[in-house]
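Thread: "does anyone have the structure for this chain?"

Original post by V.I.:
We have the sequence but no experimental structure in hand. Need at least a predicted one for the grant figures.
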Amino acid sequence: MEYWDLIENPSNEIYRKLITVLCNNSDKFYFITRKELKCNHEILELFKPYVLQTYQTKEWASTITKGPEATVYVIDSNIETCHLLQQVANSLYDWVAPQLPEDLTFIKNNFEWFTSTTHEEFGGFSIRSEYYRNLIGEIHGLQLQKAD
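Reply from O.Q.:
Generated one for you, tokens below.
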């Protein structure tokens, strides 16, 4: 397994390319909302037709909270949700409350291959095949650093 961290916030065209690659190579994705942080419910309504599951947890991707549980929205990854992700934000780290839900995470075959903790401006890939390593290499302008 290899881990690659983003070293720059993907924005504009690089953000749109990143989202396209993530959506096209994932079965689903999720984001979270937290009770203590306000959230724009109009955004949640846009994704509502594609929600596969919601649940409460204190643990997700690379986060464990000591505060109240978060709500995880698991969403089908398809062309419509890809366009929504690209329309409501201009960069990965735009995904913070109160405007947007937080912590976009993309999943293929129940494996979280891209995770983010957006309020801390962290994102990265967990790569377990040459195929996925090549995919992220095709996103020109995406600034990555191999993690130790």
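V.I.: this helps a lot. The chain has a mean pLDDT of 93.
O.Q.: and The chain is about 25% helix and 35% strand.
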